[in-house]
Amino acid sequence: MKFDIFTLFPEVFQPYIDASIIKRARQNGLVEICLHNIRDWAFDRHHTTDDTPYGGGGGMVMKPDPVFSCVEDVLGSDFSIPLILMTPQGRPFTQQVAKELSDFPHIALLCGHYEGVDERIREHLVTDEISIGDYVLTGGELPALVILDAVSRYIPGVLGDPTGAEDDSHASGLLEYPHYTRPPIFRGWSVPDVLLSGNHAEINKWRHEQSIQRTAKKRPDILEKYKKEHIE
């Protein structure tokens, strides 16, 4: 799967994509990540990518001309590629959205910055808008990394366990069950006997029950939604 990321700060991404699961996915040719510095398409002497807003007010706004030029030079006329703007005004990012995006062989992420982007970018260039939460960040780089990571986990071969993404919290509609590893007893705290039993049917049953209990305690709103979808 290919990710084109349009940003004013490509250096933010490199440490993360050069580590852990994303690094291995890139090395194995499962994920291709291309970073594009929007400043390279600002052709004035100062490579200006922002300006003051018409009508007054604080902050700066990303100019349309370098953004359009950058995106159009990279993506060309392939309108089948989703171009997603990172913005707190976008639709909420969820596990289901991550899975939905993983079905595309190629997606593009546009990182907003400052007070946001010129509205003409939103109206005539991007195809989708996503928010990772009801709060404001300095720029869209962190949200883009979140989406890159979450979507990549659904790409076959990226995770060591082929069903790993399906077991993650929220993937099934519930929070994930507790995990334990060696030693079996640590400071007097024992691993539940069922996990040492070798009885996979009982282990699966225990894990499902634990997921329900954990969701009820931590996120009862999610449990209510799960009950409506699976019981009613």
From TrEMBL:
- How does this polypeptide assemble, per the annotation? Homodimer.
Question: Which keywords are on file for this protein?
Answer: Cytoplasm, Methyltransferase, S-adenosyl-L-methionine, Transferase, tRNA processing
Task: Please report the name of this protein according to its UniProt entry.
Answer: tRNA (guanine-N(1)-)-methyltransferase
Q: Give the protein's function.
A: Specifically methylates guanosine-37 in various tRNAs.
What gene codes for this chain? trmD
| EC nos | 2.1.1.228
Tell me where on the tree of life, at the top rank, the source sits: Bacteria
Can the keyword Magnesium be found in this entry's annotation? no
